Amino acid sequence: MADQRLETRFRILKYLVENPNAQDTLEGIVEWWLLDRLTVSHAATVKKALVDLVVGDLVLERRGKDSRIYYKINRRKLKEVSALLSMPSRKRSGPGG
Predict the structure, then answer these.
(1) Contact 10, 92 (CB under 8 A)
(2) Which of 95, 88, 81, 84 is nearest to 52 (CA)?
(3) How many secondary structure helices (H) and strands (E) does the chain include?
(4) pLDDT exceeds cutoff 80 at 35
(5) Which of 5-9, 24-28, 37-41, 68-72 has the lowest mean pLDDT?
(6) Domains (ranges, CATH) in the chain?
(7) C-alpha angle with apex 38: 32 to 42, nearest 5 degrees?
(8) Among residues of the chain, what percentage have pLDDT more than 70?
(9) Which phi and psi (to 5°) does residue 62 adopt?
(10) 11, 55, 78, 88: least CB-packed within 10 angstroms?
(11) 61: part of which helix (H) or strand (E)?
């Protein structure tokens, strides 16, 4: 389970680095960003990974006018995230996890 959560965090970060203007809700991230790799039933894992990334200050969250929470990359951490993504997978437990 921890490996799946770690992998999910990196998939979210990879998408955000490739699409730095992207932001979406939990449902949108699961459905649109990760659908090809994860199924909707993984929403709990995605939520936990997002919490880790927010706590690690790699991803920012904000409540929208629709009262849903939106997540986006912390642009101040782009270099750190890029470095983290380039590390071998077994050394990736750093920030946000």
Answers:
(1) yes
(2) 95
(3) 4, 2
(4) no
(5) 37-41
(6) 2-88 (1.10.10.10)
(7) 100
(8) 84
(9) -150, 150
(10) 88
(11) strand 59-63
How many residues comprise the chain? Answer: 97
- Give the tokens for residue 37: 């790799």
pTM for the whole structure:
0.61
Residue in the block written with tokens 């659908």: 35
Q: Which amino acid is at 29?
A: I
- Single-letter code of the amino acid located at 71: Y
The residues, any chain, with a CB within 8 Å of residue 70's CB and separated by 6 or more, are 23, 24, 25, 61, 62, 63, 64
- Main-chain phi, psi angles of 25, to 5 degrees: -85, 170
CA–CA separation, 76 vs 79, rounded Å? 8
Say which DSSP state 67 is in. S
36: tokens are 């090809």
